[in-house]
Inverse folding.
């Protein structure tokens, strides 16, 4: 299969290049490709003539999006529109990566995980711009596209929460404060790549699909499990803190955990987040 991969130089893109190596992949990334230029992007896509477009390119720095809403929408809405238009012109299927941040993070009850049919209500510029991109996909390619929502992503080479915590944890110093009142699904790039492989094998699937690892935790729980896996390589103590003790420019969802209803109905289950993290730590940090 011919695949056009936007954002191929990013963390998820690099993993997809490795995991989908049995396909013919063209990387569409800066400086050669500009996802915000609809005319040149479509022309270059037509030259490639892909069967599938996997759209990873995005502005993902949540706080930077809050500080520059115009750029966030330029990349996450207009860029996604251009990827969808190019896919349509090529007669290609589109798999567009989205995020848990399209939800408010304020569920009506606990425990809770957001399903594919739950109503998005983002509270950040990042979430709003990604939801606007989702709507472009559904408008332009309603029957030949998948919006794949992922969350709390980490992968080979980073950057990610895992890499930051591993680096800080290897240094002596005061205890590390980690937020313990935000809940989500830590998810490896490898797990997402496996979901995409499944979606490639099922061209009949369209619409919104949640593709995070199974089960959920807080950032503090995530950090504690990483510390356990790294053992003596992680020398710092970790202590829990509240969101209010660790203010950020963008408001983080309190609970953005995602249910995998579509995948589960189809008989596909993503790995448990602890198992996926253990595999990653062994590969990335040597156990």
């Amino acid at each position: 299969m011919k695949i056009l991969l936007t954002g191929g130089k990013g963390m998820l893109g690099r993993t997809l290049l490795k995991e989908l190596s049995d396909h013919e992949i063209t990387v569409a990334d800066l400086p050669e490709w500009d996802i915000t230029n609809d005319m040149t992007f479509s022309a270059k896509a037509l030259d490639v003539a892909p069967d599938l477009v996997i759209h990873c390119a995005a502005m993902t720095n949540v706080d930077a999006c809050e500080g520059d809403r115009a750029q966030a929408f330029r990349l996450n809405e207009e860029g996604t529109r251009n990827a969808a238009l190019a896919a349509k012109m090529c007669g290609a299927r589109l798999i567009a990566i989205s995020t848990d941040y399209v939800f408010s993070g304020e569920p009506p009850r606990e425990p809770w995980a957001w399903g594919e049919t739950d109503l998005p209500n983002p509270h950040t510029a990042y979430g709003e711009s990604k939801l606007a991109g989702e709507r472009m996909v559904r408008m332009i390619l309603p029957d030949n596209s998948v919006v794949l929502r992922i969350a709390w992503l980490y992968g080979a080479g980073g950057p990610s929460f895992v890499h930051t915590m591993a680096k800080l944890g290897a240094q002596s110093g005061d205890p590390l404060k980690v937020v313990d009142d935000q809940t989500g699904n830590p998810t490896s790039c490898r797990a997402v790549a496996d979901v995409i492989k499944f979606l490639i094998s099922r061209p009949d699937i369209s619409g919104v699909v949640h593709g995070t690892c199974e089960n959920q935790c807080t950032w503090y729980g995530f950090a504690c499990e990483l510390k356990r896996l790294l053992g003596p390589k992680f020398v710092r103590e970790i202590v829990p803190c509240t969101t209010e003790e660790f203010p950020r420019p963008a408001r983080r969802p309190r609970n953005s955990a995602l249910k995998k209803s579509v995948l589960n109905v189809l008989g596909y289950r993503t790995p448990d987040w602890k198992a996926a993290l253990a595999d990653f730590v062994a590969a990335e940090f040597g156990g």
In short: The chain has a mean pLDDT of 96. The chain is about 40% helix and 15% strand. Residues 17 and 73 are 26 Å apart (CA to CA). The two ends are 35 Å apart (CA to CA).
